Amino acid sequence: MFSNYFISRYIHRNCQILIVGGGSGGCSMASKFAKNGQNVIVLEPNEMHYYQPLFTLIGGGMKTLSQARRPTKTVLPKSTTWIKDKVNAFNPEGNSVTTTNGDTINYDYMLVAIGLHLDYDKITGLKEALDDQYSSVCTNYSSDFVEKTYKVMQNFKGGNAIFTLPNSPVKCPGAPQKIVYIFEDFLRKKGLRDKANIMYNTSTPAIFGVKKYANRLEQLCRRRNITVNLRQNLININSSKNETTFELLDEPNKTITMEFSMLHVTPPMSPPEVLKKSKLSNSIGFLDVDQFTLCHKEYKNIFGIGDCTSCPTSKTVAAVAAQSNVIFHNIINSINGKPLLKKYDGYTSCPLVTGYNKCILAEFDYQLNPLETFPFDQGNELKSMFRLKKDILPIIYWNVMLKGYWNGPESIRKILHLGTQ
Ligand code: FAD
Ligand code: UQ1
Question: Is the pTM of this model over 0.85?
Fold first, then answer.
């Protein structure tokens, strides 16, 4: 009787498809499977769903946080079961997971979509500086802090304005520099541009991974007097002294300390701990999937989507959209005992906002070859691409992608290029 009480406290559930994580990837996939009549459980701890691509525009004062969020229950399809909890352990041999509440969920297929974790603690003094509302340290990378960026921008009177990109994989690797260009444009409009020394300090060996866009961005930085310091990695912030220290990645044991009047930090990121410690991850903690089929390399009833996967592409919603179609067809084929025929080509896209009405729309594949949707040169700064980013993509996201109907712009590209790309 006594032991029965303890046993029955924990719930056991079964489903055909378990989706772990209800962010961009999890929600889109839940909708695709729900429309197709699959029995789906979504495990997601957060009450609110965020459209993170808007964070850059919130940081620049062009959108509000309330425009970037909706209650999770309103973005998940009605026929799926939402469990408001986190996965605590994966048990791939037993086809089950346990949650932090101690419940067990058994599945036939599992899709892992738990995104990336922000590792604030890898930079000494970062979290304290962000929490301090009077400091001039900010980040667009979290819903907790993104509204602070515009306040810091408005309070800027002059001096060093430093923007960073860490020595780890990050989501939307273009976002750390979009805010540099927005800030530079902001100062120009305010008549303060000559008071600022703007620096982009990045751990990467080049300003961008794709040659075509890197060339355009280098020209832009030269033209707008933005200093780009390559292979510099932020390690320490002394917020009371407004000082920050970088390690020089190509000169072992060498550091450089700089004063700042504004510091925009992109925190280091890594997959959530629960994935890193599981049997599902590769040597650096990402879900170990085949980069083309998106099926786990060892467990054939497990698939992955988005930021938490080992796919060697830039981690974006645009990539998630392209992956979603591949995963849907491959899981359905697998259920029907057929081979996994759909292959993901690494498509990703980065709308490099370069000011208050301009954007370079980078699109490329695994080979880092441009794969542009429109029949004009997207390497130019264009107003039309800014409108797309600011006004059209949010509509597509909430009304088409989260409803399971957006597979990225591939079909539009094929029509506009008359099937040649
Ligand atoms: P997420 O959407 O982050 O969702 C992960 C979900 O997993 C979360 O809801 C989380 O609560 C949940 N979770 C975590 N741990 C657990 C657990 N243990 N159990 C259960 N659930 C868990 N992309 C673009 O395409 N274009 C852009 O312009 C762009 N700009 C960006 C700008 C910024 C500042 C940022 C931060 C991101 C930007 N992105 C952009 C990237 C984009 O937001 C992500 O790539 C995308 O959201 C990835 O989707 P996901 O489903 O993999 O992860
Ligand atoms: C995209 O499909 C997408 O997902 C909805 C994004 O995330 C917000 C993007 O930023 C971009 C650029 C695309 C690509 C879409 C087109 C029309 C080029």
Answer: yes
